[in-house]
C-alpha cells in the first residue's frame, strides 16, 4: 500500500485518470501553510482559554459544580463576566463569520454559514433571555 503522495499521484495518472488537484491538503507542499496552521492554533488556544471558564460559569450551577454565589444564575455580575469572556471567543472564531456571511450572501451557504448563524443567534438571544 502506497503512503507517499507522489506514489499516489503516479498510480492515478498510470490508471488513466487526471492528476488529483494540487489544492487537496494531502498533496500540498509544506511552506506558507505552516504560518496559517500556527495562526489557527493560536486562535484555538485563545478560544479555549476563554471558553473553558465561560462554560464553567454558565453551566456550573446546572450540573451542581461549586460556583461562587455572585456568579450564580440570574446575577448581573455573572452576565457581564460571561459577556466579557465571550467576546475573545467570538474574535478568535471570526473566520466563521467572515466566510460564512460571504457564502450566505452569495446564496451558497456552507458549514461556516451554519456556525455563524447559530453562534450569532445564541449570542444575540442570551442577553435578551436573561
Topology:
Blueprint: H1 5-14, H2 33-59, H3 76-92, H4 94-105, H5 111-129
Helix pairs in contact: 2-3, 4-5
3D architecture notes:
- The chain has 130 residues and is mainly α.
- Helix content is 65%, strand content 0%.
- The chain contains 5 helices and no strands.
In short:
With 130 residues, this protein is mostly helical.
The overall strand count is 0
User: Which series of helices and strands comes N to C?
Assistant: HHHHH
Q: What portion of residues is helical?
A: 55-70%
Shape: elongated
Percent of sequence in beta strands: under 5%
Tally of contiguous helical segments: 5
Which structural category do the helix and sheet elements fall into? mainly alpha
Sheet with most strands:
none
| Radius of gyration, taken over Cα atoms and rounded to an integer in Å | 22 Å
Amino-to-carboxy terminus distance: 57 Å
Mean model confidence by pLDDT: 81
Stretches with pLDDT under 50, minimum 5 residues? none
Amino acid at each position: 500500500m502506497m503512503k507517499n503522495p507522489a506514489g499516489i499521484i503516479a498510480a492515478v495518472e498510470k490508471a488513466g485518470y487526471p492528476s488529483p488537484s494540487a489544492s487537496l491538503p494531502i498533496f500540498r507542499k509544506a511552506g506558507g501553510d505552516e504560518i496559517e496552521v500556527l495562526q489557527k492554533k493560536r486562535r484555538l488556544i485563545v478560544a479555549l482559554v476563554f471558553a473553558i471558564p465561560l462554560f464553567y460559569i454558565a453551566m456550573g450551577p446546572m450540573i451542581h459544580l461549586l460556583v461562587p454565589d455572585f456568579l450564580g444564575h440570574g446575577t448581573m455580575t455573572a452576565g457581564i463576566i460571561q459577556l466579557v469572556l465571550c467576546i475573545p471567543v467570538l474574535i478568535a472564531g471570526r473566520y466563521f463569520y467572515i466566510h460564512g456571511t460571504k457564502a450566505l450572501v452569495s446564496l451558497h451557504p456552507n458549514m461556516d454559514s451554519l456556525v455563524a448563524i447559530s453562534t450569532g443567534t445564541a449570542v444575540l438571544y442570551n442577553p435578551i433571555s436573561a
